[in-house]
Design goal:
Elements: E1 8-10, E2 15-21, E3 28-32, H1 46-49, E4 54-58, H2 74-88, E5 93-98, H3 100-111, E6 116-122, H4 130-145, H5 156-167, E7 185-190, H6 198-207, E8 211-216, H7 223-226, H8 228-241
Parallel strand pairs: 3-4, 3-5, 5-6, 6-7, 7-8
Antiparallel strand pairs: 1-2, 2-4
């Protein structure tokens, strides 16, 4: 039976919940969840990934089993991941972000390039247009006003902050800075993705210096789940080619 470590890391201003397996593997693979979610859903993938990597999944501040915090913004979410890796003794990792998690990973790679052995950006964007920006902001406002009751009160502040951060990619896109991210990058998207759209993946891949782009034309949002087996094979082949896996 797979043995999981399920502790919390007290980082001072916030306590971050994480789960990990494959502690004997030399390369770490860190998963970053989508907007308003948690890392719990990725645990179902641990049996596979822990055969190849030290695999870690974690909950953003104010979400899942992580504690609430006084402040929420994109650089702080990235800082939490950097400090968590330090706490776990992980110098470098392959960092995989889905949807909102992909926005977080872009910020992380910009702020902490030395901690990135490689990045995987799954169904995400580095910029949004006016309509998309308005839509993401409206999602946050629906939670703030109580119109959306699917988000629990203890998770509302973090959800709103994440939605506003995505909306903010209209006026503060990450695209112009992507050229600074020089580590290997695997960019995947779905041709039927009605949330982020495949165009976001194309834009990202065109602006990253060391990117491989794969669009799964019949897939929707979140290739890690939509095309589980195909993604696994692709990721391992790419990682071996990049010298990240023996």
């Amino acid at each position: 039976m797979l043995s999981l470590a399920m502790p919390d890391a007290n980082l001072g201003d916030v306590t971050i919940h994480y789960e990990e397996a494959g502690l004997d593997k030399p390369m770490a693979f860190v998963f970053c969840h989508g907007l308003g979610g948690s890392g719990a859903g990725f645990v179902q993938h641990f049996d596979f990934w822990s055969q190849h990597f030290r695999v870690v999944t974690w909950d953003n501040r104010g979400l899942g089993q992580s504690s609430a915090a006084a402040k929420y913004n994109l650089p702080l979410y990235a800082s939490d991941l950097a400090r968590l890796m330090d706490r776990l003794g992980i110098a470098k990792a392959i960092v995989h972000g889905v949807s909102w998690g992909g926005v977080l990973v872009q910020q992380f790679a910009l702020d902490y390039p030395d901690k990135c052995a490689a990045i995987i950006l799954d169904s995400t964007s580095s910029e949004v247009n006016v309509a998309s920006s308005d839509g993401w902001y409206a999602r946050g406002e629906a939670v703030r006003s109580g119109a959306n009751t699917n988000v629990t009160p203890e998770h509302a502040e973090s959800f709103i902050a994440e939605a506003r951060a995505v909306a903010g990619l209209r006026e503060h896109p990450l695209t112009p800075r992507l050229k600074e991210i020089t580590c290997p990058a695997l960019v995947v998207g779905g041709g039927q993705d009605g949330v982020a759209g495949a165009a976001g993946s194309v834009i990202i891949a065109r602006n990253l210096p060391n990117a491989r782009l794969e669009i799964f034309q019949d897939a929707g949002h979140g290739i890690v789940n939509q095309k589980r087996d195909e993604f696994r094979a692709l990721m391992l082949e790419w990682a071996k080619g990049a010298g990240l896996l023996g």
